[in-house]
Amino acid sequence: MITEIAQIDVKPGMEADFEAGVKAAAPLFKRAKGCSGMSISRSHEKPQRYRLYVKWATVENHTVDFRGSADFQEWRKLVGHCFASPPEVEHVTETVHAF
Amino acid sequence: MITEIAQIDVKPGMEADFEAGVKAAAPLFKRAKGCSGMSISRSHEKPQRYRLYVKWATVENHTVDFRGSADFQEWRKLVGHCFASPPEVEHVTETVHAF
């Protein structure tokens, strides 16, 4: 399993809209091939900065299957207007889980 | 609860040393005031980039209590030589857990 991390800076005042859009988009991710989890975290130091975490079976489930789907367009319709800049996306794998 | 995210780029060839240092440091975090979890993830796109995730009861448990402790010096002794640059640290709170 891999985790997509999308660092998203939202426009000032769009925090509540963004969080509502993420909640509304949950069913799109739930039905996406290989997707097993989705959450967002908000930064203390930069309150307009969020990180979206999405768990995928493979990187391609995100980059090929989801990005190529109509649901990706729906996702962007729900939250894209909140973005201050293009999201910065990386994929990570947990290598040590100490406790 | 808050999560510390430290983005750490390690020097080329130091990946195994860094991961071993993190494992060796687990007891330092386990006994730290307010600490309830610690793990690292590695980037697919930038394999020398790690993210350390540490769960704390409060931001101050990290920034005041832990950073002011002798165990912080021990932690840096175990992994500091692996750092290619100073870690970039932020604190985040989960605001939406969709599934």
Keywords:
99 residues; 4-stranded antiparallel sheet; homodimer; 35% strand; globular; 34% helix; alpha+beta
Give an account of the 3D structure.
Two copies of one chain form a homodimer. In chain A, helix 1 packs antiparallel against helix 3. Helix content of chain A is 34%, strand content 35%. The first copy, chain A, has a four-stranded antiparallel beta sheet. The first copy, chain A, starts with a strand and ends with a strand. Chain A has one domain: Alpha-Beta Plaits (2-Layer Sandwich), CATH 3.30.70.100. Chain A is an alpha+beta fold.
How are the elements arranged and paired?
The structure is a homodimer of 99-residue chains.
Chain A: E1 2-9, H1 15-30, E2 35-43, E3 49-56, H2 59-66, H3 70-79, E4 88-97
Antiparallel strand pairs in A: 1-3, 1-4, 2-3
Helix pairs in contact in A: 1-3
